[in-house]
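Database export, one record per block. Field names are fixed; values are copied verbatim from the stored entry.
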Amino acid sequence: MEFEEAKAKFLKAWGDLGTKWGINKTMAQIHALLMISPTSLSMDEIMEELQISRGNTSMNLRALIDWGLIYKEYKAGERREYFAAEQDIDQMIRKVALERSKREIKPTIKALEDVQQMQQENTAEARQFKAKTKQLYAFISDADHMLEKLVNQKENWITKTILKLMR
């Protein structure tokens, strides 16, 4: 497999993976391109490489900056903005986990807290609802707490965790 073919295959695979993270395919492909690039890239270079529009590129670059996965770089004498990705894989995974928790897990926890405040009705359906949502709240809260502990491990936590699971 030639380099350009391998690169295209990786960009496609990372884009597909991104949709499972809860981000769109183009956003994931821009992230992948910046992650494997040896230097920062301009918006025009990203657009050309991925064959996407300026508006799509701009919107997804802003979203990636919001996620903390990429950042702007300024080059002396250049008017264009350049973009680079977080190169530390552990740090990148931490940022994705934190962002997913903030966008998905925390709102779910809040909703489950809120429904526990419903006025008690003495029907089988209401009791079942309260019991199940209480169990879900406990499970999701525990899972989020465990995720926070993993994310806060500073040294290569993913490798350590995987090795512990393999033993």
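Remark 1: The mean pLDDT is 87.
Remark 2: The domain at 3-85 is CATH 1.10.10.10 (Arc Repressor Mutant, subunit A).
End of record.
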